Amino acid sequence: MVKLTRVALIQCACSDDVEANIAKTERYIREAADNGAHIVCLQEIFNTLYFPQEVDVKQYELAEALPSPTTERMGQLAGELGIVVIVPVFEEAQPGVYFNSTVVYDADGAYLGKYRKNHIPDGPQYLEKYYFTPGDLGYPIFNTQYGKIAVGICWDQWFPEVARIFALQGANIIFYPTAIGSEPDRPDYSSTEAWQTIIRSHGIANGVFVAAVNRVGVEDAMHFYGHSFISNPFGDFLIEADDNEQIIYADIDYEQIRELRNLFQFFRDRRVDTYGPLLKRVIDPDHSQSSR
Question: For the chain, what is the mean pLDDT?
Answer without folding.
Answer: 96
